[in-house]
Description:
- By secondary structure, the chain is an alpha/beta fold.
- 32% of the residues lie in helices and 19% in strands.
- It has two domains: 19-170, 3-Layer(aba) Sandwich (Rossmann fold); 172-236, no CATH class.
Amino acid sequence: MARPIGAVTRGTTNPNRLRRMDRWIAATHAAALRRADDPLAVDLGYGAAPWTAVELLTRLHRVRRDVRVVGIEIDPERVAAARPYEREGLTFAHGGFEVPLPGGRRPLLIRAANVLRQYDEDQVAEVWGRLCARLAPDGLLVEGTCDEIGRRHVWVALGPAGPRSVTFAARLASLDTPSDLAERLPKALIHRNVPGEPVHAFLRDFDRAWAAAAPYGALGARQRWIRTAHALAAGWPVLDDARRWRQGELTVRWEALAPA
């Protein structure tokens, strides 16, 4: 076997860390999962323990009972440690950004959480291109970053043709201002949070809308977030609606936040 493409990550992982990302995937990608002839998902770079792959299978099962998940890790010792957790619908394999799958299968989903954090910004486009090229025609790549226990998370969703959207998600009770999420921006955006860049302007407007919605805080952080999202949608291409906002999420078209 050729040497896997990529570098070993720190491997930090915790149970339930990726619940917000998984919940969003299960909701927004459900139609594609249901109509797929081969409902295959990949948890790329799952880390030192297999919890996130196990949880992804459980959450996608609610959408499609015959979904299959392959956890792929570049560190062979992590793959060996995960093998006892294999079960019907869940396997583990050694590999990297080449996404090795039997028979050249093309996954309907690749989830790469907290993988590109250690890479340079100028490496992101190449990795995205490589992963998108491996997707099935209706496939989705979800790449992003979260904190250690999954309270704050930002991810980019990409299709075979490239990036589509950016989603901000948080446990609202722990959020002081939306710009607190800046430290969890994906690698493609985290160094762009400076004046003159679209993502900086967006987070500025996000904070302003949050401050203006302060009276709604008396009804709870969720109502304040929903009001904030309504206000942002007047000036930014927000793609979702109150059904997702109630979950502490907000999704914006990629082109609006892409680096200048």
